[in-house]
# Entry
Amino acid sequence: MMAVIIAAAASAHAEEKTFDIVYQGLYSVDDHVFQPDKTLKVTLTVDDLDGNGDYSENEVKALKASHIDYKGSCTVEHCLEYFNWVRGSLPDYSAAYHSFDGFYNELTIVNPGVEYREFVQSNFGFRYDLTWHWTADTQTTITQISAVPEPSSYAMLGAGLASLALVARRRRKHNDM
# Structure
């Protein structure tokens, strides 16, 4: 019985956390003006695997921003180029989306503190390239979203409750003798 409890505890890991990060107020390189209402929303899911309170690239489970939809490993289209988030600071990362379907070439880059870029070019002459830069006036808001427990968390809870029920049953049996 104790072995089951120890095994369940040993298999436990840090809880995944999801954050909404909103960057507001970006400088439009194309219009040469600071746009106080321009926002970029990023949703980030991390898991502090080493339990140190900081997050590194291998602890990022998902990052969504504009066209970027990174899900734990780079694909042909979605990639997290680097990531580091030290407790007490802002996340430092670069993420990109690149797609070419034979007609359209699309690129999205998010590099907080530096640049946010949306680029599209077609084989038919259509093209746009919008770039925004961070300034000292750019505001960053980070909000943790309530985590949804993973199935393994429910399994551990069930194992714990079953263990407690078994111990209580044994005690009742022992007291009845």
